[in-house]
């Protein structure tokens, strides 16, 4: 079942693939929580590349990024973390976190992403190789969680490559900075 904003983010506790404890929904910092399919997914790996390249700027604005994959830690190491990532990467092979956040499955939306996002698919396949052609039907989802553990925005992808636009993440961060400077609470929901 989909989660909606504004609502309290379900608390989850993990140890990421780097051995660091990660608390989702209670970190005291603004968080972009990204749910990915399996570690060989070309769309997922391309998004990881984007987040890695934007990480320094987003972190400077006060954002933590947490990426959660349904794969085993070994598969995540093989495809995603073969290059060190500057944010938390979590293996969720039992899909506990995915189920808690209502991540959806759809063969139709997977195929839609493959057909409509060919350039991104090709860029992602360059990262993961042909293993990227055999992925699950899970859909992506992103959650913006404020420093109080509230979901400010829940973004469920309309297809396999649909992610929250980074300008919406930047707006979420800007509202948090304004709230800190002004001493007024930030809006709990980010409007598109």
Topology:
Elements: E1 7-8, E2 12-15, E3 21-24, E4 30-35, H1 42-60, E5 63-69, H2 73-79, E6 88-91, H3 96-100, H4 107-116, H5 118-128, E7 141-145, E8 150-156, H6 166-182
Helix pairs in contact: 1-5
Quick take:
This protein has helices at 42-60, 73-79, 96-100, 107-116, 118-128, 166-182; strands at 7-8, 12-15, 21-24, 30-35, 63-69, 88-91, 141-145, 150-156. By secondary structure, it is α/β, with parallel strands linked by helices. The radius of gyration is 16 Å and the shape is globular.
Distinctive features:
single chain, 192 residues, alpha/beta, Glutaredoxin, six-stranded mixed β-sheet, two-stranded antiparallel sheet
Description:
It is built from 6 helices and 8 strands; from the N terminus they run E-E-E-E-H-E-H-E-H-H-H-E-E-H. By secondary structure, it is an alpha/beta fold. It has one domain (7-182): Glutaredoxin (3-Layer(aba) Sandwich), CATH 3.40.30. The strands form 2 sheets. The chain has a 6-stranded mixed sheet, covered by helices on one side. Strands 2-3 form a two-stranded antiparallel sheet. A hairpin with a 4-residue loop joins strand 7 (141-145) and strand 8. The longest helix is centred in the N-terminal third of the chain and has 19 residues, at 42-60. It is globular. 44% of the residues are buried.
